[in-house]
Amino acid sequence: AMAIEIDPNNAYAYFHNGLIELDKGNHGDASLQLERAIYFDKHLYEAYFCQSEIMIAAQNTPQAIEYIKKVIAIKPDYWIAYKKLGELYYDNQKYADAVTNFATYFNNVTSDKDITHYAYSLFFSKQYQEAREMIDKLVQQNPNDYVLLRLLGYISYETKDLVNGKSIMDRFFALVPADKIFTDDYSYYGKMLSAFGNDSLAIENYKLALKKDSTQYQVYDELARSSNKLKKYEQALKYSSIYFRKKPNLTPADYFQLGKAYYSTGNNLDVKTDSLKQLEFYQVADSLFKQVEVLSPNSYLGTFWRARVNSSIDKETTLGLAKPFYEKSLEILIKDTVKYKKEISEIYAYLGFYFYVKEDKAISLDYWKKLLEIDPENLKAQEAIKSLEVK
């Protein structure tokens, strides 16, 4: 107060007043004093840094980031500012920005061993090898640190190091307190078990993940995948439907996957006892694949799978329900007969049979010959051609 009385423009006096108010917990008064300090000295980087702390406490992250950026602009070698900025980006899931700032800090401050968030940022930025090298060193020093083991397990799954990954996650679950288990711990372990072919146990872990946090909609997709692998198609459809309802910003792939789920479930119903239910499932599948057509007009998938669905509805091919869809998808597929050999073969076989049913043997023969051109070993085409040429 005496300093300000002598020199009303004394930036450091206002800065220290700000620190005093900050220590008292008076963030509003502290911020006012720090702003006065900045007004009288635009290069007083410590004042900007303290303002960032106040903004963090007020949960005003964008303003906190701006203050830290000003600190770095004024004093580029104020290394702690880079770590603070890395933490802010980490907390806001901007992992690439977090990595950049953590890297600057840790390259210059080698005495700081607190690199967990740096490693996690590398992981979330999909820089798995760099994250692994960092965590491996720490695990050697702290083999029972479950926080490190968790991340190492996640990295092992992402890098397909499944054998090591499973043993790491087994060790992790043996060490981690029950109240410290994350949703992702169960879901990653489930994905690892599924990769080993143990989908029954994978499903149990996915259910534990949802018990932890039912908002994690992506877990329902994993449940559907494991159920499909176990050939529990109705169960898979149930989970796929929940995933579809819960997921924001649906993509063509989401419509496609749910369409396949309805189609597969319909195929596995007993037509003798569930014919109406089967037809209903096929109709829903068709509407979903139609949506794929609308959202991805340059893709063959929506049209091609509509053809498959309609072929299943019109099992005797008397109505030709699948014909327009197969013909439309062929326009896209024919551009690459090598890549799409399987799909084109299916189309030619359908059209060959369709025209045979319609007793237009010349066109039927033409399609079977086209099939034989791209697949000379196709027995169905060989037999059809032999039969039609005899007639």
Write the layout of secondary structure elements.
Layout: H1 2-6, H2 11-24, H3 27-40, H4 45-57, H5 61-74, H6 79-91, H7 95-108, H8 116-124, H9 128-141, H10 146-158, H11 162-175, H12 183-195, H13 199-212, H14 218-229, H15 233-246, H16 252-267, H17 275-295, H18 301-313, H19 323-333, H20 341-357, H21 361-374, H22 379-390
- The H-and-E topology, N to C, reads as HHHHHHHHHHHHHHHHHHHHHH
Tell me the helix content.
Answer: over 70%
The computed structural class is mainly alpha
Q: How many strand segments?
A: 0
What do you see in this structure?
This protein has 391 residues and is mainly α. It has helices at 2-6, 11-24, 27-40, 45-57, 61-74, 79-91, 95-108, 116-124, 128-141, 146-158, 162-175, 183-195, 199-212, 218-229, 233-246, 252-267, 275-295, 301-313, 323-333, 341-357, 361-374, 379-390. The chain is elongated. The model has no long low-confidence stretch (mean pLDDT 93).
Question: Main attributes?
Answer:
391 residues; mainly alpha; 75% helix; elongated
